[in-house]
């Protein structure tokens, strides 16, 4: 922005200019500092750094080769900044790199250690034609300063890592965000997160049953499970939540879990060995004696078992009937309103024992293909 021949943006103080640079990727930030004397060296002070080691080609095309020169330039910058006498750190680090390129993995580990960012976001990439569709096990060493970790992947072959280091004990928030990761049975029990308070699982696939317990996450307070699919229709995928400190639980599955109206035009799902066309958990078990908020939207389970919950302040349950999503070679199936009513009854009898008839009379809304119950603390 210029007025009367003056560059007003460049007159802003350094801390504001640095935040402006943080809104773009590292490559663009460096280019900006090169062409302007006022912005010179500001890229070395960014509170949030976003760096992509490899750039994806068009969908379905091979991944582009890594740019070693750019990666080494980034390494030198971080070494000067974080390993220098001032020991400057990065508040938020976002790295996008390939799991099948050792050089990128090696530099990613170094960047994570140097930056010691309080918030770390990893976008993991790999070819889609890996043998056996598995990139293999790997580990992630977290610095003690890292409090929030978010991971995304571009394909199912990238496993979630074994998290270790001092950051595993200090981590407060863990997110698998809109990823293609496959969660194998036992993964969430293999590593203890003694300080973890928030767990968000989104878009992942279950190859079997998973357990989220106080044994490994004793301080877990907020749990969100969104669009978590089963790997195949025949897979027994159960979710067990046994969390002594859990206060909020939000479960939803609109992607692959919401039936279509029978009268609508049917679109077949794309057949894949990694996700079932329709998500139905074999069992959902819950024990959360301090639970206050319970949300269950468009999720289906053959069995819901509630061992204990706290005095709830907010409850939302929403179920839909209709034609189930399917692949072209699968038989047509429907979910009836009677099935929704049965599931609604089982959930409410578990979380609000003794009040089913009162809730049924006053709080359940029934449309042609939808069943909904919403109760607030003022209704309790």
From TrEMBL:
Domain of life of the organism encoding this protein: Eukaryota
Stored InterPro entries: F-box-like_dom_sf, F-box_AtFBL13-like, F-box_dom, LRR_dom_sf
CDD domains: F-box_AtFBL13-like
UniProt-listed Pfam families: F-box
Domain F-box: 6-42
Identification of the protein by name: F-box domain-containing protein
Organism per entry: Oryza glumipatula
